[in-house]
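U., I forgot to send this yesterday:
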Amino acid sequence: MELSVLNIKGEDTGRKVTLSDAVFGATPNEHAMYLDVKQYLANQRQGTHKSKERNEVAGSTKKIKKQKGTGGARAGSLKAPLFVGGGRVFGPKPRNYSFKLNKKLKEVARASALSLLVKDNKVSLVEAFTFEAPKTKEFKSMLSNLKVEGKTLLVIPAVDKNVVLSGRNLNKVKISTASDLNTYDLLNTDRVLLVEDSVNIIENLLSA
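Result:
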């Protein structure tokens, strides 16, 4: 498959780039994408949740009423879970939610996501560009020229400080380097802008 290369003014440069069928034309594997997204979201969790059990709650250990003769159930401590302010039974404890996935499966997932985007005509190729200084106005002008709306993922070949600073404060824009591309970002966008030099990096990573 071939895609035309545009400049940041939205004009066709007359050049075309041939995309690898192994990466941009693969048969989507939905389960692989599901697992990769699940791992990404799990890895974002801090896992610092914690509630106190009855042995951790501060308070008196004095028996609150006599054992027999009250007509009610026995009660030995205000720290018991059935009392307000008592400990919680089987409450959350700090834990690590992350889990491992096979490297090959993650590659299949990213290739599947890219293939879906290309199939739906949601990928545009942009020639290499930079800004002389961080200017959000110039970044918004570029998006307008390219007729991009909604959530946008810009994939650049390497970190460009001026480009990153220009687009980072736009709510619906995410900027990622080609080597850090992940399935979640690909599926959570309406449009992908691929800088021309990013294509070779992605193909080398996913077709090894």
